[in-house]
């Protein structure tokens, strides 16, 4: 069974962008939750 590397070429940038978005949104959400809990 051959692995199609074109699939990696297409999905890798999408996965990187998605991970970066989750990382940034997660960090902002964490700060917001910490601010809410510290009040």
Automatic annotation (TrEMBL):
Superkingdom of origin organism: Bacteria
Pfam families cross-referenced by the UniProt entry: PsbY
Record topology, Lumenal segments: 1-6, 26-39
Compartments it resides in: Cellular thylakoid membrane; Membrane
Lipid bilayer topology: Single-pass membrane protein
GO CC annotation: photosystem II; plasma membrane-derived thylakoid membrane
GO biological process, one term: photosynthesis
Family: Belongs to the PsbY family.
Protein name as catalogued: Photosystem II reaction center protein Y
């Amino acid at each position: 069974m051959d692995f199609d590397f074109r699939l990696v070429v297409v999905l890798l940038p999408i996965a990187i962008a998605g991970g970066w978005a989750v990382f940034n949104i997660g960090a902002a959400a964490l700060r917001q939750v910490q601010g809410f809990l510290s009040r």
